[in-house]
Amino acid sequence: MKKVIVACGGAVATSTVAANKIRELAKREGIPVEVSQCRVNELESKKDGIDLIVTTAKVKKDYGVPVIHGVAFVSGVNIEATEQKILDVLKQ
Q1: Is this structure's pTM higher than 0.90?
Q2: For 40, which DSSP code?
Q3: pLDDT for the residue numbered 35
Q4: What does the pLDDT read at residue 7?
Q5: In this protein, which residues make up the domain named PTS EIIB type-2 (predicted)?
Q6: β-bridge mates for residue 67, sequence order
Q7: Could you tell me which of 21, 78, 89, 92 has the fewest CB atoms within 10 Å of its CB?
Q8: Are 40 and 72 in contact (CB under 8 A)?
Q9: In this predicted structure, what is the pLDDT of residue 40?
Q10: Is 7 helix (H, G, I), strand (E, B) or coil?
């Protein structure tokens, strides 16, 4: 089971959209995944045991976990490329 955190800057609206897209992607690809959501400022305390962080806000800190910018799920631009980056990490 892969564990993914989807983080946004403030409220949960954009992270909910991205989290749902990641769940759909993993299901379509047959990858068991647990997706949770948080705010960017909570990442440090929630990163343990996580395989991937997807953010809809800018993040510059290194959490020791792959970080993918997931704003494509909100904007609709470059979704395929973002999905491929996510799959590359989840299939490791």
Answers
A1: yes
A2: G
A3: 97
A4: 93
A5: 2-92
A6: 53
A7: 92
A8: no
A9: 92
A10: strand
Contact 51, 2 (CB under 8 A): yes
Question: What CATH number belongs to 2-91?
Answer: 3.40.50.2300
Instruction: Output the pLDDT for position 14.
Output: 85
Alpha-carbon gap, residue 31 to 86, rounded angstroms? 11
Radius of gyration of the chain (CA): 12
Size of the chain in residues? 92
User: 74: closest CA among 27, 12, 29, 2?
Assistant: 12
Is 68 within 8 Å of 53 (Cβ atoms)?
Answer: yes
Q: Which residue of the set 8, 26, 50, 86 is catalytic?
A: 8
Cα dist from 38 to 56, 83, 91, whole Å = 11, 20, 23
The C-alpha atoms of residue 3 and residue 6 are separated, in whole angstroms, by 10
Answer yes or no: 8 catalytic. Answer: yes
pLDDT mean by block of 10 residues, the chain; 92 residues: 92 85 96 95 93 92 94 92 97 91
